Fold this protein.
Amino acid sequence: MQLRKVIALSLGIGAIAAMSVVPSVAHNGPGACVVAAIGANVNNVHYGINGHPQQTKLQNRWGLYYPPSDPQASAHAMPGTGAGPLGIPNTVGDRYTWLLNGTCSNGTIGGGGNFSSSGTGIGFCGRSTGLGSGTISNPAGSHSYIVKWESAGSQLILTDTTNIGSVNAQPNPADSSDGSCTNGTAVKFLVDGVLVHN
């Protein structure tokens, strides 16, 4: 009988110790953030404050081109040498910064919450690679992650283990107030998809 009490007491103390190690707001395993039609801002920084000679600044930012319409494409022809983790040829092109912030459309169910992310990329409309960081905040706590992608067409495949999934970054139509990839003024892309943060 005494042995049972000792075992029960030991298990109880062990459980209390285990619970005290994990803070109440810790990130508990994988969660999902559904991104629905959120605008990602981009700024082409390849040519500094001057942009391309033929380019027009829009919303205080320089935009991205489609490769065929880029007047400087011959200076960084696609694709680059070698291949990334998905076997997609490495990208060359304009360097740009990006910013994507918003609210997960799935609320707090299965993760959800708000997210903010930013970083750099290289490429064109329809073909780019990117690297950055982000944070998802919800009632379970705050979780930081790395944003790393390879794209083919408008689909961005997220490749870092802290943030996997896929999003679609839709370019603007030619007459959009957010610019167009045709003339290098595309400064915003509508993003849809799922971020799975581990």
